[in-house]
């Protein structure tokens, strides 16, 4: 019997082998950066060695893997270009360390990937952005000498790809940036920077479609996840965010006319000690744009300053005058459901929409947010919002 079933397996195997592209079954060809002159001594710049390994891997017709074994690798700014001839894996087992000096960067990228299809970046390693020396130059509101600082991991024009099992610490600017990407899955990543490190967004998305983010831990000095113009069909689930500024859509309305963000779903997220929870913000004044079909579901707030917020008067550097300038961004079809926990400010729910184009079709379903500080309980504050509410409503009074 045993030999007969072994024979069966062999037949099935031969069938699969001949039926499908054989290369899919072969192990990937390994391009180890150590064979290209890389040195894990923490001092030698490895950007050229990594590039040589990438170029060979990219020209390989079949699956290939650029391997960065354990160890600490100093790496200056580098961008890995496609298109490549086969599936690419960039396997980071070691620690990649950015140069300390922010003035050494002449681009806005530390590690970039461009024009690659079927890329997988993974390996369990670390990206150490060495941000502490750069952060003082990052805050253009406070510092006249503000430099253009690099994003740690930048993906431009990347399709059908995955980013998994990567840790990024102390990025100089954003940890991960997606621009003009399609069908990207990000999971099991951990992104950390101190709460007071300016502009260190966790994942920043623009002009990208079909992005899935799940099982990520983000604690940083700016938004955990932010989505700006051209973000469409973004599915975010199982996120732990904190510290940070929450998950944000916007700021919208400062680029071109008729921009949009659409089809955003955020589920099963926990926010701990963040400045905001779930937020939509548009510049004031702003051009006409659209933010629509957005849902926030199953969200836990732990001591969050603005748990639920729509802010159509966003303008941090504007004088706090009577606001005659209004946003022309239309926000519609937004659902907040099953959101509960604690607010660290009394206004737990704040929907401040535009006088000119009120928010439409907003739904509040099962909201339960407590404020335990002085002058409590929690209150809701809304203006120019059209919509409905049902289920539990604490605080109530908005819709
Ligand atoms: C990427 O994967 C798709 C689907 O499997 C395949 O059609 C395409 O040829 C691949 N491209 C590269 C460069 O591997
Ligand atoms: C991302 O995940 C979705 C759903 O799990 C899947 O359909 C899609 O093929 C995945 N994309 C990539 C590039 O792995
Ligand atoms: C709304 O967005 C979801 C993704 O969150 C998408 O599946 C759905 O098709 C969108 N609906 C409309 C009417 O665009
Ligand atoms: C979200 O949480 C609910 C309730 O805990 C669970 O049933 C559901 O499977 C989760 N969904 C995702 C996408 O994690």
TrEMBL record:
Principal localisation: secreted
Residues at the active site: 245
GO molecular function: polygalacturonase activity
Signal peptide region: 1-22
Keyword Secreted: yes
Gene Ontology BP annotations: carbohydrate metabolic process; cell wall organization
Cell compartments where the protein resides: Secreted, Cell wall
Highest taxon above the source species: Eukaryota
InterPro entries linked to this entry: Glyco_hydro_28 (IPR000743), PbH1 (IPR006626), Pectin_lyas_fold (IPR012334), Pectin_lyase_fold/virulence (IPR011050)
Keyword vocabulary terms for this entry: Cell wall, Cell wall biogenesis/degradation, Glycosidase, Hydrolase, Secreted, Signal
Protein family: Belongs to the glycosyl hydrolase 28 family.
PANTHER family: PTHR31375
Name listed for the protein in its UniProt record: Exopolygalacturonase-like
Gene from which the chain derives: LOC113696893
């Amino acid at each position: 019997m045993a030999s007969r079933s072994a024979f069966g397996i062999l037949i099935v195997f031969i069938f699969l082998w001949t039926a499908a592209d054989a290369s899919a079954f072969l192990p990937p060809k390994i391009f180890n950066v150590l064979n290209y002159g890389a040195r894990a001594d923490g001092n030698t710049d490895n950007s050229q060695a990594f590039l040589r390994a990438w170029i060979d891997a990219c020209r390989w017709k079949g699956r290939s893997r650029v391997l960065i074994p354990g160890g600490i690798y100093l790496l200056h700014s580098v961008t890995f270009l496609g298109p490549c001839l086969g599936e690419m894996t960039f396997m980071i087992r070691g620690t990649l360390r950015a140069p300390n000096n922010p003035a050494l960067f002449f681009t806005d990228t530390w590690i970039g990937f461009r024009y690659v299809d079927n890329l997988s970046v993974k390996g369990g390693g670390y990206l150490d952005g060495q941000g502490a020396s750069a952060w003082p130059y990052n805050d253009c509101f406070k510092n006249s000498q503000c430099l253009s600082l690099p994003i740690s991991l930048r993906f431009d024009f990347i399709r059908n790809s995955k980013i998994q099992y990567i840790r990024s610490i102390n990025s100089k600017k954003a940890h991960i940036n997606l621009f003009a990407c399609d069908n990207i899955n990000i999971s099991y990543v951990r992104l950390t920077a101190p709460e007071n490190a300016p502009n260190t967004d966790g994942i920043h998305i623009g002009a990208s479609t079909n992005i899935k983010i799940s099982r990520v831990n983000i604690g940083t000095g700016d938004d955990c996840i932010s989505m700006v113009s051209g973000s469409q069909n973004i599915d975010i689930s199982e996120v732990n965010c904190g510290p940070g500024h929450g998950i944000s859509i916007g700021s919208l309305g400062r680029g071109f006319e008729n921009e949009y963000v659409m089809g955003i779903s955020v589920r099963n997220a926990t926010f701990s000690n963040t400045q905001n929870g779930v937020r939509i913000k548009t510049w004031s004044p702003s051009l006409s744009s659209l933010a629509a079909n957005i849902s926030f579901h199953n969200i836990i707030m732990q001591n969050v300053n603005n748990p639920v917020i729509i802010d159509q008067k966003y303008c941090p550097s504007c004088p706090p005058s009577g606001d005659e300038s209004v946003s022309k961004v239309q926000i519609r079809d937004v659902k907040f459901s099953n959101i509960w926990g604690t607010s660290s400010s009394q206004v737990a729910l704040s929907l401040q929409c535009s006088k000119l184009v009120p928010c439409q079709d907003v739904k509040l379903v099962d909201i339960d947010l407590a404020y335990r500080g002085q002058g409590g309980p929690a209150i809701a504050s809304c203006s120019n919002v059209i919509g409905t509410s049902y289920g539990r409503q604490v605080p109530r009074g908005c819709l």
